[in-house]
Amino acid sequence: MSVDLVQQITALARRARVASLALATASTAQKNAALEKLADLIDAATFDLLETNQRDLLSAEAQALSPASRDRLELNEARLRKLAASVRQVATLPDPVGEVLDETTRPNGLQLKRVRVPIGVIGIVYESRPNVTIDCAVLCLKSGNAAILRGGKECFHTNTALAALVAQALADTGLPAEAVQLIPTTDRAALNTLLKLDQYIHCIIPRGGESLIRFVAENSTIPVIKHYTGVCFVYVDAAADLAMAEKIIVNAKTSRPGVCNAAEQLLVHRKVAETFLPAAARALIAAANVELRCDPASAAILAMAKLAHTAATAADYRAEFLAQILAVRVVDSLDDAIATINRDSSGHTESIVTGDEKAAQKFLTAVDSAAVLWNASTRFNDGFEFGLGAEIGISTDRLHARGPMGLRELCTYKWIGTGTGQVRG
Amino acid sequence: MSVDLVQQITALARRARVASLALATASTAQKNAALEKLADLIDAATFDLLETNQRDLLSAEAQALSPASRDRLELNEARLRKLAASVRQVATLPDPVGEVLDETTRPNGLQLKRVRVPIGVIGIVYESRPNVTIDCAVLCLKSGNAAILRGGKECFHTNTALAALVAQALADTGLPAEAVQLIPTTDRAALNTLLKLDQYIHCIIPRGGESLIRFVAENSTIPVIKHYTGVCFVYVDAAADLAMAEKIIVNAKTSRPGVCNAAEQLLVHRKVAETFLPAAARALIAAANVELRCDPASAAILAMAKLAHTAATAADYRAEFLAQILAVRVVDSLDDAIATINRDSSGHTESIVTGDEKAAQKFLTAVDSAAVLWNASTRFNDGFEFGLGAEIGISTDRLHARGPMGLRELCTYKWIGTGTGQVRG
Predict the structure, then answer these.
(1) Can you tell me the distance from the alpha carbon of B321 to that of B264, in angstroms, rounded to the nearest whole number?
(2) What element of type H or E holds A285?
(3) pLDDT, tens digit, 9 for 90 and up, residues B17-39
(4) Residue A359: which residues within 8 A CB-CB, separation 6 or more?
């Protein structure tokens, strides 16, 4: 690794740390002014941004992408307008910094409170979507954190242009331009250097595919908040309203199969399997020609009904398909469903459909996932749907933030104590 | 690394994960019964435990320890009585599991709440004190977490005996004995295996010296909550009550110099330095013969007063002495003090002494440390002093827990949603 590169990245991180201290005490009005300015700059730069984006789209890296990835990389006028609108929307959200979490007075008279404060410097490592550059910059800025952004190489020119607008908005409104910096190279060695700079960077959030996230988790000495995608289950209980269950599994599987809160597996209680499965299969096939990968019990039921299905392999029971494919199993009991989920799901989002409150409460308590839902689609596990107002991702970790991460989850807290000369005995 | 060892540690972690699911839904009464039983077993086993502890004390590993470390390794009747009492005390603490953090109903009628739940499986990696085995087992148990304990090799027999009592207490009260397991070997390879088992273990807490913590942070693919020790500052402002400041710095430095919340550095505003420093130096020398390592300005003042001091090196300004040594600097202003602390402290605990409320508020806001105190000793940053009732350590990380970690901080949360058939549009 070149000494120059290490020095360059280290200097960048040191500047981010200095900027973070200024940003941590900036007022809400100042931060919102920078956000409004940024939205205006994006609007004003539409033509230049589209031209820059064309350079990326014509590059060899972009040519090698799948059509879906190329689509994610592409900007157009509508997307830029939406981006500017999302920046203005973050300006309207409440500022989490300074919120008092709790307070108490100790017997010795020491007054204590815990106050929400920014984490400090956050590194975001992501792949091809250029809107992530703005989304992450804006959420970090509003929550008082400095951001170091490391985007994908196929998107480098667009990201550079967007980051320049952020720096300009910061500088124009009297905030440190270095509070948001893009790593100015796509050299992999720069990422390796970044992940070791724990004296300046306090948190790394990788956003992208599992291999990127795993690389970051394995190579970082900085705490990482992971956003793995999900293997989400819907369990249809013996006491389910079967029409409701059908509506929920169709929504959970087919409304957007490529996202982490889409259902990947259906568990059906043996008592209702013969009634439910043929109807559900017809609905899933009608909605999106879903491929059903079945265990022997569910396969037998669908075979009787002459409905298309395939035999599941062991791997299908833990698979994240991100496609119109659903694994299906029949379970013997609620306990069987809970044990199956706790063993095979990814702990992201699971849903029970039942009219039996006792069964529901048992499921909600015993299933160890970030979100557990009763009579609702798994697709609701999302920062906007859960009312956070914004989302930097959905954490599949258990420390710090679990489930959707909004502005509040981009903060830590500090203890503030006020005394009158107390010393410890 | 032997395949057998990897398999053995993996199987142990898998059993811990299974046990954690049972423990997560255990009632408060059940958990408290196990704690009471454990305290009784410790009382009943006093003779055997002391005999086992002698085996460790006579081992080659123990012989190689410093007298202070040997003292930490040693059990006696009084220490065992205190240990049993601390177990009973944890039984009296409120159970954090099940607490509702917040709740809301979304416009679509979906009712949401965030509920505190155990993290899952926690690995504790520690050094020579056998009471850590019981402390950590008990805090994990009360907070519903399974624990995997990896203690120091010089303490292996004592730890094994204590862990056996925990397993017996669990089994006797109907909880899974495997909810607390000690790694049955002191082979370093076992630790390396443990730190990669992210499919079963959710959090690692290293407790010990900096080299242990760094080793764990660098080799773990599991999220780590670090408990580095502290480089804590006391800043005596121009508007300080100097008698109060003297009392605070003497307490912060001398009451227990080997702990992480002891002060390591004194900053004095130039306006009061000539008055304050000679008096403070006399008090520090009188209290504990403290060695003062001075910058040129403070050295000149102490030289005028003919008081003992040495010249500080650059390293002293960031040093954690853990001894009766104090670095001393004169600063030009409050801003200078804040910048110095944010650059050179470890972000653990800093204190300002001043009668000027505006200066205090600026310090409390701008100093980026886990605890910031006004007119109180740094020694208060502690789980018991802050009212948590217990402490597994003091986190110097910013994610999840910052500052003292008690039972609440050994938990995560999950989202629970209750619907009436909602699907996402």
Answers:
(1) 7
(2) helix A270-288
(3) 999 999 999 999 999 999 999 99
(4) A237, A238, A239, A334, A352
For chain B, what's the residue count?
425
Which of A368, A372, A385 would best serve as a mutation to test chain B binding (most B beta carbons within 10 A)?
A368
Q: Are A375 and B422 within 8 A, CB to CB? A: yes
The Cα of A370 is separated from the nearest Cα of chain B by a number of Å equal to 5
Token pair recorded at residue A290: 């879903």
The DSSP code sequence of B255-313 is: S-TTSTTSEEEEEEEHHHHHHHHHHHHHHHHHHH-PEEEE-HHHHHHHHHTT---EEPP
Distance of residue A251 Cα from the nearest chain B Cα, in angstroms: 6
Q: Which domains does chain B show, CATH number per domain?
A: 3-228+404-418 (3.40.605.10), 232-380 (3.40.309.10)
**A:B CB pairs within 8 Å:** 201
Indicate the pTM of the whole model.
0.94
pLDDT digits (tens, 9 = 90+) for A123-168: 999 987 899 999 999 999 999 999 999 999 899 999 999 999 999 9
The pLDDT tens digits for B333-385 are: 999 999 999 999 999 999 999 999 999 999 999 999 999 999 999 999 999 99
Q: What share of chain B is helix, strand, coil (3-state, %, to 5)?
A: 50, 20, 30
Distance from B54 to chain A by nearest Cα, in Å?
33
Average pLDDT over residues B92-118: 97
Query: pLDDT digit string (tens) for B404-417?
Result: 999 999 999 999 99
Calculate mean pLDDT across residues B130-150: 96
Please list every residue in chain B whose beta carbon sits closer than 8 Å to the beta carbon of residue A373.
416-419
Mean pLDDT of the B261-271 span? 98
Cβ separation of A251 and B368 shorter than 8 Å?
A: no
The pair of three-digit structure tokens given for residue A197, joined into one six-digit string = 């700079």
Residues in chain B within 8 Å Cβ distance of A412: 398-399, 402
